[in-house]
């Protein structure tokens, strides 16, 4: 019994480590409490995440993995001009600048940008402190989710391969 439990623990430890390191979720954040219905959490191979609510409201940001790779964030460029407009999957919806580098953020889906996270303008470090919570970048209205998006399990596999 103990050896079976030990084998299971050894097998699951890397996954738990990756999950903790890559996706630190903040369940109290608006990205998860926006609606009472189930939230669909998806990822891209470019290290963006989205939380999709039953009413079509979708929050988009970068993953913990991406925020750690960038280092301490110093500036966030938000798409203020795009609020109220539509974007297509793959369009640039912002950029994150850090002490190490800068990286563009891409829309993981087609939709309408309804809000940008203006709190990031005064506190860009939220992207590092809470990337999958209060560090969200845009709020969108989205219809159907793209089939190319990754589940959390598939995203963890992607991280293991990198």
Automatic annotation (TrEMBL):
Keywords: Lipoyl, Mitochondrion, Transit peptide
GO cellular component: a single term: mitochondrion
GO BP: glycine decarboxylation via glycine cleavage system; protein lipoylation
Subcellular location(s) of the protein: Mitochondrion
Pfam families (alphabetical): GCV_H
Cofactor dependency: (R)-lipoate
Modified residues (N6-lipoyllysine): 100
InterPro entries to which the protein is assigned, alphabetical: 2-oxoA_DH_lipoyl-BS (IPR003016), Biotin_lipoyl (IPR000089), GCV_H (IPR002930), GCV_H/Fam206 (IPR033753), GCV_H_sub (IPR017453), Single_hybrid_motif (IPR011053)
Domain Lipoyl-binding: 57-141
Cofactor binding remark: Binds 1 lipoyl cofactor covalently.
HAMAP family: GcvH
Family note: Belongs to the GcvH family.
Function, in words: The H protein shuttles the methylamine group of glycine from the P protein to the T protein.
Complexes and interactors: The glycine cleavage system is composed of four proteins: P, T, L and H.
Protein known as: Glycine cleavage system H protein
Organism: Ogataea haglerorum
